[in-house]
Amino acid sequence: ELVKNYDVRTNDVDNLASTLSGGNQQKVIVARELSRDLRLAVASQPTRGVDVGSIEYIHSQIVKERDAGTAVLIVSTELDEVMALSDRVLVMYRGKIVAEVDPKKTSAMDIGLYMAGSKPQGVAS
Predict the structure, then answer these.
(1) Which of 2, 12, 41, 54 could make an SS bond with 31 (beta carbons 3.0 to 4.6 A apart)?
(2) Domain boundaries, the chain
(3) Residue 53 pLDDT more than 70?
(4) Nearest to residue 54, comparing CAs of 79, 33, 80, 28?
(5) Which runs of consecutive H residues, i.e. helices, occur in the chain?
(6) Non-local CB neighbours of 124 within 8 Å, separated by 6+ positions
(7) Whether 56 contacts 43, CB under 8 Å
(8) DSSP letter at 8?
(9) Is 85 helix (H, G, I), strand (E, B) or coil?
(10) How far are the Cα atoms of 16, 57, 102 from residue 13, in angstroms, in the given order?
(11) What's the pTM value of the predicted model, to 2 decimals?
């Protein structure tokens, strides 16, 4: 069922994950982890290397977990992904948190400025 839901491309569900492409390995890991009974999920680059359709499905599953009460920590270089999935965003610059913002009230441009150290530290709009 997980192979079908996450569109894992394999000739046989009994194949080892190591025989799959990188994107399909990523789907297997996300499917395995999100199928557990979780209190906390840490998703680091959850959609790296997967196709657009799978990105949407993975995002919907992360949101489903969040809405079910699971604490979800997203670590991603994809700012759009962070903005879409997060209730709040902590921005780091030079190893320190410089802002905590609501992604629904803050532009990607402002977050980018915090990331670049161009906005005063500790001040969030």
Answers:
(1) 2
(2) 2-73, 88-125
(3) yes
(4) 28
(5) 2-5, 22-34, 52-67, 79-85, 108-115
(6) 99, 100, 101, 106, 114
(7) no
(8) -
(9) helix
(10) 8, 20, 41
(11) 0.75
Using an 8 Å Cβ cutoff, are 81 and 59 in contact? yes
Alpha carbon distance, N-terminus to C-terminus of the chain: 44
Residues 6+ apart with CB under 8 A from 92: 98, 115
Q: What is the tens place of the pLDDT at every residue in 79-103?
A: 999 999 999 999 999 999 999 999 9
Helices 22-34, 52-67: axis angle to 10 degrees equals: 20
Q: Which residue has the higher pLDDT, 89 or 2?
A: 89
Overall average pLDDT of the 57-86 stretch: 92
Residue 58 confidence (pLDDT) above 70: yes
113 C-beta neighbours (distance < 10 Å), count: 16
With 0-12 / 13-18 / 19 or more C-beta atoms within 10 angstroms meaning exposed / middle / buried, residue 6 is: buried
Give SS3 for 35: coil
d(CA 117, CA 52): 31
C-alpha to C-alpha distance for 25 and 47, rounded to whole angstroms: 11
